[in-house]
Amino acid sequence: MRSPLTRRGFLAAGSGLAATALPALSGCSSLAASDSDPDTLVVHSQLGTTAPGSATYLRALKRFRAENPGLKVKNLVNGDDLAQVYETARLARKEPDVVMVNLYDKTLAWTDVGATLDVKGHLDDWGLRERVLPQALSAWTDGKGRLRAFPYFATNWPVAYNRALLEKAGVHGIPRTGDELIRAARRLRAHGIAPVTTGGNDWTGQKLLAQIIQTFLTEDEARHAYTTGDFGSRGAREGIAYFVELRDSGVFTDKPQGLTSDSMMTQFHTGKAAIESAMSSALAEVPERVARHTDVGGWPLADGAVHDKPTILRSYTLIGFWISPNGAKKADAVERFIRFMYRPDTVSRFITESGRDMAVRSDSLSTGFPLVAAAQRLGSDVSEVLLPDVFVPPAANQPLITATSTSFTRGTSAARVRAALESAYRSV
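Structure for ABC transporter substrate-binding protein, as requested:
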């Protein structure tokens, strides 16, 4: 499918676009002329404020600066708008040298249009291939064999169950089937406790919906559905019907179609909801008073599921180090930075200090983050389903959020859910 970004539109923008590029950088920091100095490395990241791992990252930068006294490092920080800010900076040829962001939506097209480099050669030349998990290399490699970025953060994405709330409602043990989940939800509601909380109006609900639909889809079938927007297969229709059955049986918290990830975490962290589907960085944020009586597992299955165990999501594309065309001019500085970030001691600190899952090999465990560590140990107790992020065309991502909100609206038929999902691909 054709990317909404083209080489002409992205890299050969007219003077009008370039002239508007610099003000958009104010959200992170302005790029001064000195940033083109070969002795200044400019790194653009989502780490540096409250994002999980930010404190560890800032300490790593401090150590890197101390070890490289002749090299200045400028750290630019953005949140969810990082991709847009980077693209604007690239139009003005003022982009940072290294970008730390996930493989999702806009970033899927960057390497293809020349906004960032294929780093496969650097990975081998710098002797770092063996440091990366094979699954991560596969996930970051595009259909033309190009490695989009140096893989770094990964995530496990299990389901967290507040055991104390379940037991208060008379539910003993984690639900493993849809029928068990429905019965548990009824008991929880009878005790004034919301069952499953999710951000039905953002990416958290989108991922949970995709996970439930895949109850009846093989990996290849799921890849086809989320690449093409074709949800008409028998498995996809059965998965949507399963979701609708759970929703209309009261499994999800009230009015989830209006909630966000922040709402979800607040409900779970305060004991207002008993269950949430949460990536490992969110599990690391669960307060100790809740974590000590929380178990992690998979999403319950329906009869006839293609999986034999409850499902989780897992991703190796959460954050990578992308190299820009400007960064190519500072290859020595970029190499020193990437090598430093790949060092076992640096990687270990993200695991032990921040509870991050990594796409880079390490023997360290997140022992200070019990739920993250428990998710890392799930192993063969769960089945893994596809995280669709790298297969959904960028133009369909935001429409899929809208479709997700529609889907979580109680009373929406399975046929309407399917229509909403497929309509998200009309502009692709």
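Confidence is low (pLDDT under 50) at residues 1-34.
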